[in-house]
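quick q for whoever's on today - can somebody do inverse folding on this one?? i tried earlier but teh output was garbage lol. tokens:
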């Protein structure tokens, strides 16, 4: 199963905390906990969990079915990002955006969706599957 980006972010935060506790790096340079606050992690996990459930329910999906699943997760992630911004937090930055998009692609692929064929049938590149709805 594709590893969620939030798992990676939590692991990075834990590693950074261990390094700070050991005296490296300077605590002023350690920013993972600010970048990935608990509310962002929890809300992102909730959105991804719902996406995973949607993907598991797909059986012999049409392109419209697959895009519906993608749309729902992207809109949920838009809400997370917007809420974080309203709270004065970072939301999703470039690395997070790329990881989330890759996760969506990998999860679909692991559940039998031929993403390359899907995007080819719809006249787009693989990296564009979230673009219609993505604000982050």
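ok took a stab at it. sequence:
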């Amino acid at each position: 199963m594709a590893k969620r980006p939030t798992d990676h972010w939590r692991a990075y935060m834990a590693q950074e905390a261990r390094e700070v506790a050991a005296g490296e790096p300077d605590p002023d340079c350690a920013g993972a906990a600010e970048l990935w606050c608990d509310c962002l992690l929890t809300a992102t996990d909730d959105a991804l969990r719902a996406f995973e459930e949607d993907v598991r329910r797909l059986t012999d999906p049409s392109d419209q079915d697959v895009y519906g699943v993608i749309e729902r997760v992207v809109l949920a992630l838009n809400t997370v990002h917007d809420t974080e911004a309203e709270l004065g937090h970072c939301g999703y930055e470039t690395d997070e955006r790329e990881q989330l998009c890759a996760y969506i692609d990998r999860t679909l692929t692991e559940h039998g969706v031929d993403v390359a064929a899907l995007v080819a049938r719809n006249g787009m590149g693989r990296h564009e599957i979230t673009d219609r709805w993505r604000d982050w």
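fwiw The chain is about 65% helix and 0% strand. also The chain has a mean pLDDT of 92. so keep that in mind when u check it
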